[in-house]
Write a structure and sequence with these properties.
Shape: flat
Distance between the termini: 66 Å
Structural class: mainly alpha
Largest sheet: none
Number of helices: 6
Oligomer: single chain
Order of helices and strands: HHHHHH
């Protein structure tokens, strides 16, 4: 099965500009409060800032957690796509694999799912269901518009 590896994050890039912005954040928030709510300047206080080392650690942790969530999501999509692929009959799997090997786009789970659903009929059924739901919604909107127009004319 062909797929593209994603490089792992190398860590949060803490620059001097980000540090300067962080150090001035409390003052910027106070200015914003004074500008937006001049009558309540004494009542609103800006959020307290963390020490800079704690903020660096927090951002690094958030980056790693975010990346892990993204990788877990991609892995879940791959597992779903492979489950759908292996649920197909062997002839259909051969056609899917042939098309996937010729695929020139990114080797991502979304695209593999598209190819699998194109062959197993799930994509067509979803499109049909969505079109029916759209038609029903438009019918409800038109009925509501018609009833409102009648009320306005009477």
């Amino acid at each position: 099965m062909r797929f593209e590896r994603e490089p792992r994050a190398e860590g949060y890039n803490w620059t001097t500009r980000k540090e300067a912005l962080f150090l001035r954040r409390e003052a910027r928030e106070a200015e914003k409060i004074a500008r937006d709510y001049p009558l309540f300047v004494g009542q609103f206080q800006p959020r307290p800032t963390l020490p800079i080392d704690d903020e660096r650690k927090r951002r690094e942790r958030m980056l790693l957690e975010c990346e892990q969530r993204w990788r877990d999501l991609q892995a879940r999509f791959w597992r779903q796509a492979r489950r759908a692929y292996f649920a197909c009959v062997p002839e259909m799997r051969a056609a899917i694999l042939a098309e996937w090997s010729q695929w020139r786009g990114p080797a991502r789970p979304l695209y593999f799912t598209y190819i699998v659903e194109k062959h197993n009929g799930v994509g067509e059924a979803r499109t049909r269901r969505l079109r029916e739901e759209d038609a029903a919604m438009l019918a409800r909107i038109r009925a509501r518009e018609t009833s409102q127009a009648r009320l306005l004319l009477t």
